[in-house]
From TrEMBL:
Chain segments annotated as transmembrane: 32-52, 58-77, 89-108, 120-140, 238-263
Domain of life: Bacteria
Source species of the chain: Ruminococcus flavefaciens
Protein name: DUF3592 domain-containing protein
Taxonomic path: Bacteria, Bacillati, Bacillota, Clostridia, Eubacteriales
Keywords from the named record: Membrane, Transmembrane, Transmembrane helix
Keyword Membrane: yes
Amino acid sequence: MKNYDDKMNYDENGLYPDEKPISETHPVASKILSTLVILIFIAGIGCLFFFGNAGNGYAAMYSFFGIFLGIGIIALLSDVIIEERSPQVGIYIALGIGILGIAGTALVQQGSYNTRMTMLKLFFVSITGILAALGLIHSIRNAKYVLRSKDNCTQSVMAECVDRAIVTYTSGGTVKKGGTITKVTFRPTYKFTFEDKEYKVTSGTTTSERDKGMQYEIFVDPENPNVFYDPEAEKKGLFSVILTFILFVGIPVLICAIFIFAFKAAGI
C-alpha cells in the first residue's frame, strides 16, 4: 500500500502536481513548445510543397523528414528538461524517422542508382524494424509480469517507484478546453532491496496513483525476487499478452514483409 505520509495535495481529478498535463504545470513553456511545434510543422509542409513544385525532390524530402526530427527534438526537451521524466517511446520513433530519413536522402542524393535503391530498401526495413523492436521490448515487459505465476509471491517488501508511464483518458475534449479526466492509468517501475541485493522490475498497469520516489508494498517470490505481485495492478491474462504482441510487433513485421515482397516484385 502507498505510504500516505506525504501531503494530500491532489486536485479535483485526483492528480498530483507532477501528474498534471504540461499545460497546467508549466503554462508558459507549454505555449512556447506548442508554438514551436506548429511553426515547425507549417514550415516543413510549406517547404515540402514549395520544393516539390520547383522540382527539387531532395529538398522536399529533407523538409518532410525535418518535420519528424524537429518535433522529436522539441518533445524530447519537453520530457527530459521540463517534465523531468524518461522520454516516451513515440519520441524515439519520431527522431529515428527524422535522422534516418535525412541521412538516407543525403546518401541517395550523392550515390549511384544501386546506392539509391539499396538506401530505399534499408530505410523502409529500418523504420519497420525499429517499430518492431520497440514493440517487442514493450511486449516482453508486459508478458514478464502477466504470465509469471504469482503463487510463490508471499514476501512483502516496500518498493520505491523510480519511474512510471502515465496514460490519461478524457471525455469532452482536452482538460484545458473543459474536458473531464475519466481514467488515469500508471505503469510503474519499482526498485527494491531483498537480502542485500537490489532489483528493478516493471509492473502491470494500475489505476491506483503512483508517485516517483514514493514507497509501495509489493510481494515477491523469495526464491526469485524478480517475480513479484503488485496487489493493485490490473488483472490481465494470456489474451492481453497475445493482443499486445500482435499490435506492437506483428503489424510492423507484416508491413516490413510487404515492403520486402514489393521490392522483390519490382526487381529492386
